[in-house]
Amino acid sequence: MRRYFGRKLLIYGLTFFVAATINWMIPRFMPGDPVQSLLSRHQVAPEAVPHLIAYYNALFGLDQPLWQQYLNFWGSLLNGDLGRSVYQSGRPVTEVILAALPYTLGLLIPAILLSWWAGNKFGAIAARRRYLDNAVLPIGYILSAAPYMWLAIMVAWILGSVLRIFPISGGYSYALEPSLTWAFAVDLFAHWVMPFLSLFMVMFGGWAIGMRNMIIYELDADYSRYLDALGAPSGLVRRYAFRNAVLPQVTGLALQLGVIVAGALVTEIVFSYPGLGKLLLAAVQNEDYFLLQGIFLFVIIGTLIANFLVDIAYVLLDPRTRVGMSGGSA
Amino acid sequence: MGLEVTDLRVYYRTLAGDVKALDGVTVAVAEGEIMGLAGESGCGKSTFGNSLIRIDGRMRHVGGRVILDGIELPIADGDAMREFRYKLVSIIPQYAMSALNPTRRIGRMIDELLESRGVRHQELRTELRRRLLLVGLPEAVLGRYPIELSGGMKQRVVMVISTLLDPSLLIADEITSALDVSTQKAVSQTLVQFRDEGFVRSMIVVTHDVSILYQVSDTLAIMYAGRLAEKAPTEELMERPLHPYTRLLISSLPEMGVRFEEERLAGIPGAPPSLLNPPTGCRFRTRCPLADAVCEEQPPFVEVAPGHAVACWKAT
Amino acid sequence: MTALAGPIPKAGESVGRAREVRYFVLRSRKILISAVILAVFLVLAVLGPALRPGDPNAFVGPLGAPPSSEWWFGTTTFGQDVFAQFLYGLGSTFLVGLAGGGIAALIGVTVGFVAGYRGGITDEVLNMLTNIVLVIPTIALLVVVTAFFKARGIVVEAAFIGLTSWPWAARAIRAQTFSLNAREFVDLARISGVPSWRVIFGEIAPNMSSYLFMTFILLFGGSILIAASLDFIGLGPTAGVSLGLMMYNSVAWSALQLGMWWWFVPPGVAITAIVGALYVMNVGLDEIFNPRLRES
Prior knowledge:
By secondary structure, chain B is an alpha/beta fold.
């Protein structure tokens, strides 16, 4: 078990190292001069150009030797300094991101956990009832094939625009100030429902199909056939199959994290939900590279932590990893 | 009382049509008898064993009756059959190595299985422990997961589980094929011991390894292309085989322990017929050195001496 | 199931298998329906430029008109023809899927084969690389990389997607190669001194052809979805039209609030239908190649 976690942590450490290095390399090794290209995209008065070049060069530390730049980069990274956001008038990037983070997590964590739980339950039920199965499969495939943002758009259009049940955009009404009042909490919730729902639905489809297929596979496994041959009721056979079918679904959660994160980002954009996704769009539109890179690093760190949590969950669920054999997947 | 099978027909559904894996098998296994069932791979011997306990979705019961201890088993009806499984008829499957749920401790799995069959597991605790010791396993295996056990240990655990409710009939399906020679010997001795201790009353040992049957079985049945060719007490069959197929089979066995499946019966020219469209009459006639016009009619499986039955026109 | 091993005729096994596959393909509802869906969209994409010639971004019609006999899918807020954009967008979608999925398949298959076949230290290194790329969220990496590109084309986008979405394929292929490695014919080839690449492409790949095809199908669908997300964040092709860009524009110009459903419904339906058809086709093929999944 120690080897299992040791290996995982090594991979995560390396991944972080690689990601951070990519982050450092990109502006420096891209074709063309990043400072020039930054300036050329902004409408800058000609007489201000030399000042700005000097300013950006100092900011990137471009006049120093490369290895020095690299060390500086790690130094400030480990101090939590990700630079300053241009579009948020010079606020530290870390601060800007930390302000948006709760919205993204508040959306993602419940959506992931609930869709995983409900999808697995539903898929297992579908696997044993033909009429349900016939309905679940097509719906599941449609949901899991729909682009996240399109489903979000449809939810926003139907529930928000046509039926006018929930507010379409923002994290809370502009009329309200964030506070610990009942009215604000209700408002916050109302704005949360649709982005949550659209994320939930896409993931739900995927988990339900996955579970349904895994159960059918496990029901044909030798241990299921043996139980059946010894006259165990189908309830017990299914219970055992479910328990074994859940394991690949846990691994699947880790594999899907990248897609889920991407889905959350674009969903936020649809609803102008004030999380990392909206921030990302703003960073792209305003060419705010420090902010962009900061978001990149935060997403990486978040994904690594989530991966590690999934690993722990896997060890808890699969006895084989605990008895010293390697189980699951890297 | 024992087992009586009459004219059993079980087909496999395939794309190309029905594969007639069992095409009229009639056989009796007496109480206390261990019958060995041997034949080339694909002759239907495993299908026979499985048919008596669990017909799966790919198999189809076409005809014939199975009577065990005076009760007709509803073998075609999975739900009705459930009640008889384990208590009356049980199996040690071919896949014993992977028969245990990988994510349950063995003891807990046994408890849950017993409870599901309406047996209080506490009552069988002592007996379970005794039988585990009997096959050389410490009680501690109950607290283990299958992955912590060696192949031979898993095999023995499955043997104990399968016989825990003292079934009347036990089917042992190719249980030695994955083991090395010394373990094979131990396993087959255990089978005899189980019968002698009264854990099971009668037994059908399905295998392609005749040397095992020599050690274990009281009687020996030879199967060819979905039908029984011959059945007799083991000694008699080995020494005085009547069916030409049995004769060729035994004479082509070079030494004990050699599996004739792998040898592909060098002594017998030709290959077994396709069970999709088996030839009429005697199924062996295309390869049989004695075959003539009579053999175009199907020979009946008849007793020619006490306990010695054969399906061949030339043997009677 | 020993009962089936012997008696079925062995002669002409490969011919028989090909015939069996064809038999099931023609009888698989899943495969037929998904193939028809894909074909319809593909024809639309190919004929698109002929049906609606000219620049799909040109301002040609009334502003924000709903679908009519003249403007089948209506027009945008600025009077662009949604149907023209839709047809061009389909073309981009297929292109991205094909190129992105193709590149990812190529990398994934190569890495998987080499890792699985060579084993040892090669496998360790490749596996580590695979795991690292696997853990990094594709979209985040793509955003950072593409944001620095001033002019982006569909091919560049597809290349980036291909370069980042291969890891799971590599892992799956590696596992398959491992199991084939143990087979006799691979051993024989290896012992007799055949070069690795010939063993891989001469012995292993043909035995996995169905699996490779299914991997490509999934990567194809995945690339389309990733491209749509990238376009939606505003990092798609800088010139031209794509389905993701259409959705981006519709949201950016408040089509939701204005109820201009004809602007955002068609691109989403098309992507969902294409990707869904690819998934269902994959399941259909899986049922054919793994007989135990077939519905009885």
